[in-house]
Write a structure and sequence with these properties.
single chain; 438 residues; alpha/beta; Rossmann fold; N-(1-d-carboxylethyl)-l-norvaline Dehydrogenase, domain 2; six-stranded parallel beta sheet; elongated
Length: 438
């Protein structure tokens, strides 16, 4: 079986490599010259654990190729996946479908046989219908089916999510499209992964609904953390107490500085606009967006308060810049508004992130100093702030950390450290949703 993947970004690259691992011949089309050159040289344009090895093995086996010749890639493909970006459109919050439309038009002009065109990109409800209309207009001579196959890949564990998914959702309306996609996903049938066939609109909405629901869980526990601080409760015990209820579940109940990344901010905003345009506004999602934006903006104020009300002239060490660990993704990271506010208020910021510093440079103020490791960032600092919970930060010895610093303020926005151990090492320890050890 042969397929084409239009777009060699995060979704297209991971999905293409995993389909190749299934034994499928995959041609990935990437038009960015720098990214294409890196892929052909075996260098990954993104950081994702295990991806470089998976890509290398499948390229060596001849199942995975990279190129910019779209007509050649789709010529013999039974299915063509659209995996281009759908960023938030400036001004109104809707998903920008210009890349999707351009890709579909190119595919329509290039295909030479009956084909299934599948959207992997996250697209608003109704996009599949619009794609079908474009294909009918441009290629009335060919039978082209349209399907929606949203991705549910978590950055940092994307390969495992693809190979052992909670579910696969496929929206299609023809027997041929269902048969092609059923064959493509046959290895997952063999491990009894749930595969849900739906209508196209349903599949498109499932992705938005799933991300919005998870974003609501994150926002809910963050608000409970604020309440815990006011009433003397421990948010981690609250999270365990509600998470053990099978109807709620334990995942995504971890307090922090607010959600970021490539999916939750963009998709909650897009779903909010979709619902408003449909005349069925989602007040819950609207509130999630507003509360999360305010939370990220307010984290710097929390740090400034811990430093006595001012950071002017002080050195602040920042550990972790990416929106989550095990990725180099800086999109909508809480670190952006936090670090920017600290610099704006006169602080000297020394930062370290294991993978995200190159991506952070164009997004953060130029005054930030980037360090080789956590201890170098802490050297001479008046306060230390942990923003992203990389595992290597968990292993830092409290005594060594305290000895490296000039001051004693530690603001742990992910509740990584044990309050008793930190106060025992001499820190003025500040956590989220839990009281400091007495």
């Amino acid at each position: 079986m042969r397929i084409a993947m239009i777009g060699g970004g995060y979704v297209g690259l991971v999905s293409g490599a995993c389909f190749a691992e299934f034994g499928v011949e995959v041609a990935v089309v990437e038009t960015d010259p720098g990214k294409l050159a890196a892929l052909r040289a075996g260098r990954m344009p993104i950081y994702e654990p295990g991806l470089e090895q998976l890509v290398g093995e499948n390229v060596a086996a001849g199942r995975l190729t990279f190129g910019d010749d779209l007509p050649a890639a789709v010529a013999e493909a039974e299915a063509v996946f659209i995996a281009v970006g759908t960023p938030t459109r400036r001004g109104d919050g809707h998903a920008d479908l210009s890349y999707v439309t351009a890709a579909v038009e190119q595919v329509a002009r290039a295909i030479r046989r009956p084909t299934v065109v599948v959207t992997k990109s996250t697209v608003p409800v109704g996009t599949g219908r619009r794609i079908a209309a474009i294909l009918r207009e441009l290629r009335p001579d060919l039978e082209i089916d349209v399907a929606s196959n949203p991705e549910f890949l978590r950055e940092g564990s994307a390969i495992a999510d693809f190979m052992r998914p909670d579910r696969v959702v496929i929206g299609c309306e023809s027997a041929r499209a269902q048969e092609v996609l059923r064959r493509l996903y046959r290895p997952l049938y063999l491990i009894e992964a749930p595969i849900l066939f739906t209508g196209i609109e349903t599949a498109e909405l499932v992705k938005y609904a799933a991300n919005a629901f998870l974003a609501m869980k994150v926002t809910f526990i963050n608000e409970m953390a604020d309440l815990c601080e006011r009433v003397g409760a421990d948010v981690h015990d609250v999270a365990r107490g509600i998470g053990l209820d099978g109807r709620i579940g334990r995942k995504f109940l971890h307090p922090g500085p607010g959600f970021g990344g490539s999916c939750f901010p963009k998709d909650t905003l897009a779903l909010m606009r979709i619902a408003q345009d449909a005349g069925a506004p989602s007040r819950l999602v609207e509130t999630v967006v507003a509360v999360n934006d305010a939370r990220k903006a307010g984290m710097a104020a929390r740090i400034i308060a811990a430093c006595g009300g001012s950071v002017r002239g002080k050195t602040i060490a920042v550990l972790g810049l990416t929106f989550k660990p095990e990725t180099d993704d800086m999109r909508d990271s809480p670190a952006i508004p936090i670090v920017s506010r600290l610099v704006e208020d006169g602080a000297a910021v020394r930062a370290f992130d294991p993978e995200g510093m190159e991506q952070a440079r164009p997004l953060l103020p130029g005054a930030v100093t980037y360090c080789r490791d956590a201890l170098e960032a802490a050297d001479g600092a008046d306060a230390l702030v942990l923003i992203t919970e990389w595992n290597e930060f968990r292993a830092l010895a409290p005594d060594r950390l305290r000895a490296a610093m000039r001051g004693a303020v530690l603001v742990d926005l992910r509740n990584v450290y044990d309050p008793a151990a930190m106060t025992g090492a001499g820190f003025a320890y500040h956590a989220v949703g839990r009281a400091a050890a007495r």
